[in-house]
Design brief:
Layout: H1 2-40, H2 51-59, H3 74-82, H4 87-100, H5 110-128, H6 132-141, H7 151-172, H8 175-181, H9 185-201
Length: about 210
């Protein structure tokens, strides 16, 4: 019962974070577009600060680009290679594949074929990533009852929520994000000028 309660809470949180990350990435792309448009039309009028001040200023500036996912540690790569897929996930994946595997869609209408093929691909990725919540979402969409989660799956879901939270934070800490959401025009101008100084110092094209 305790595991089931934890699972239900984690499912809700994981779904929320996945949707939040997707929306955050979309907003970031909009912010990037607006930032670059403004950057193209701005000429910095600030004087060059003393060397020490400029170095401190540059340390606070992030280059406006989508933040990459952190590279996995070597031990994590080795662990991922050795890790066997969870039996529960494999069982659910087999049930999903029996309904939406591309080889079984030859007689389907084209739109139905694309829809089911996309579900199969999502399920395959979820299996590769040991994403229990992702598998469950697809299973429920196809009317498949997944087995109850194990303690290991609860731990995997907790790890996923931490990773999602970290990725959202990385985006929200970028200069582009902060500039885009800043309401004070003076602060926006200061952020833009800071970036321009940093770009000139490091020979970055603006």
């Amino acid at each position: 019962m305790i595991i089931e309660s934890k699972y239900q809470l984690l499912v809700v949180r994981t779904r929320y974070l996945k949707n939040t990350l997707e929306l955050t990435k979309e907003i970031f792309q909009q912010a990037m577009s607006v930032f670059l448009e403004n950057l193209a039309g701005v000429e910095s009028t600030t004087t060059v600060p003393p060397k020490e001040e400029e170095e401190q200023d540059a340390q606070k500036v992030e280059i406006p680009q989508p933040p990459p996912d952190p590279p996995p540690e070597e031990d994590e790569i080795i662990e991922a290679k050795k890790e066997e897929k969870d039996e529960n996930l494999k069982q659910v994946f087999k049930k999903i594949a029996s309904k939406v595997h591309p080889d079984k869609l030859q007689n389907e209408a084209e739109d139905e074929k694309e829809y089911k093929a996309s579900l199969f691909e999502k399920a395959r990725i979820s299996l590769d990533e040991n994403d229990y919540c992702g598998i469950v979402d697809i299973a429920e969409e196809l009317g498949i009852d997944p087995p109850p989660p194990t303690k290991k799956q609860i731990q995997l879901m907790k790890k996923m929520t931490r990773n999602l939270e970290a990725e959202i934070s990385r985006i929200e800490e970028t200069l582009v994000w902060v500039w885009y959401h800043e309401e004070e025009e003076k602060e926006r101008q200061a952020l833009m000028e800071r970036y321009i100084k940093h770009a000139k110092k490091n020979n970055i094209r603006t």
